[in-house]
Specification:
15 helices, Rossmann fold, Helicase, Ruva Protein, domain 3, 335 residues
Length: 335
């Protein structure tokens, strides 16, 4: 395991303060949803992407706008619709007339070319159009007409989707959903938060947000997050947790064997470790603690477990299964 240098240790001291300013500024604009805000910050620091699920009107779009403003990132919004084409996202070559009167092909960039991309209601678009976004997320590049264009760091996609029970939605395939580091569920606000939302959105006052974190500093934090250490014992815990999601493995509980059809892919383990490292860094630590792993387990894995017919019929939630798995997993010493 690589040793953390003293130079890195000095950088860490200011990380918690930087993230604290970002968090505080966002919460001036977004009422409640502290867990969702925290999850987005962890994913951003880890270099992953976020899938936000909730019914319309819960402030998902406002959260993305706030994050873009306070981090000084270029941001775009893509409203997905059933008639949208892949080129509406990636861009396309167009014949344009130059000053000399000649017409030549030039690439017109689509809205995917931004640091922060809000993919609104992604499950209202057809699978072909969804794939254009998801491939860009995976490759951090766009290929159009045989020409490849790199996307600029940081590249962070926050996709929103309506619950799949709603009409006019196209469920994301499991392999596509797997590309999101986190799936965050945006819950309906309680009475206190709802009252605050109504006051803020029906009055005359508007909240102005300040940019408190530069793009260059954010890239530094993302690179620093990768240098956070994880012990063999913590890594072994992550392996144990991932294997326990697979019904055919000996680590699986009776509940998993009864209700789960497919467990998490190895990408789920990567997500847990990367997110745990980011969480540790946000708290000013250069090592991953057991609690870091357990705290990021739900958003990192809830979209990677596929229930069988019995689980779907009985209304079993993946969070319930993950809670049982987390409670049964034990941190053991690794010699």
């Amino acid at each position: 395991m690589p040793k953390v240098t003293s130079a890195v240790e000095k950088q860490v001291e200011s990380v918690a303060a930087d993230i604290g300013r970002v968090r505080a500024e966002i919460q001036r604009f977004v009422v409640g949803q502290e867990d969702v805000v925290e999850g987005c910050l962890i994913a951003l620091l880890a270099g992953g992407h976020v899938l936000l699920e909730g019914v319309p009107g819960l402030g998902k779009t406002e959260l993305v706008k706030a994050l873009g403003r306070v981090t000084h990132l270029s941001n775009t919004r893509i409203q997905f619709t059933p008639d949208m084409m892949p080129m509406d996202i990636t861009g396309t070559h167009m014949l344009l007339e130059g000053d000399d009167g000649r017409r030549e092909s030039q690439f017109q960039r689509g809205p995917i070319f931004a640091n922060l991309v809000l993919a609104d209601e992604i499950n209202r678009a057809t699978p072909k159009t969804q794939s254009a976004l998801l491939e860009a997320m995976q490759e951090v590049s766009v290929t159009v007409g045989g020409e490849t264009f790199q996307l600029e760091r940081p590249f962070f996609v926050m996709a929103t989707q309506n619950p799949i029970e709603m009409e006019g939605t196209y469920p994301l395939p499991e392999a596509q959903v797997d590309r999101f580091l986190f799936k965050l569920v945006v819950e309906f606000p309680d009475s206190e938060d709802l009252a605050a939302i109504l006051d803020r959105t029906t009055g005359q006052k508007t909240v102005g947000l300040e940019s408190v974190l530069s793009r260059e500093r954010l890239i530094q934090l993302q690179d620093l997050s990768r240098q956070v250490e994880i012990s063999p014992a913590i890594r072994s815990l992550v392996v144990q947790l991932i294997l326990a999601t697979h019904p055919e493995k000996q680590e699986a509980s009776e509940l998993v064997r009864k209700y789960v059809r497919h467990g998490s892919s190895p990408r789920g383990g990567q997500a847990v470790i990367l997110a745990a490292k980011a969480r540790a860094l946000m708290q000013g630590r250069l090592h991953v603690a057991e609690q870091d792993v357990r705290d990021v387990l739900f958003p990192a894995l809830r979209h990677r477990l596929l229930l069988n017919f019995e689980g779907e019929a009985e209304g079993v939630r993946t969070d319930d299964i993950l809670r049982l798995i987390s409670n049964e997993a034990r941190l053991e010493a690794v010699l």
